[in-house]
Amino acid sequence: MTQTLALAADHGGFELKRELLSWLQGKGYTVQDLGAHDLDPDDDFPDFSYAVAQRVASGQAWRGVIVCGSGVGACVTANKVPGVRASVCHDIYSARQGVEHDDMNILCLGARIIDPKLARELLSAFLKAEFLKKERYQRRLTKLLSIENSFINLDTTTIPPNQ
Question: Which among 22, 102, 123, 145 would be 20 to 30 A from 138, CA to CA?
Fold first, then answer.
């Protein structure tokens, strides 16, 4: 397989990430393991999420997988990076459909929500799925990218900080 995956987890997803890394490599995927490499209960999910998002957005990885406690923080962080379409998925339909309809390129998993068996099933669905280039899905993706692009060159000095 020529598809390279970026994979990372914070302390909340550390053990599940280790299991998934081994499983993915056994399936023939090239995996960029972006950490955590040691269990550190004080590490922060944005560091690992951002690393995966950068790899995917830059094209250095085909797709990405981020594991944290719930998957939510990883997803929120990853979606801050232009070019990333990340989602938390804890059911097989969403893991597949997110790619087919929305061109999702990062799967976020909650290690405190799902077990390793379901995580492997979700990953399998995510990795096997392909974006369906039907007119309606392409139209929606184009609108989504237009929204994203409208913020890329935004002058943030005119936006008041959160109170």
Answer: 123
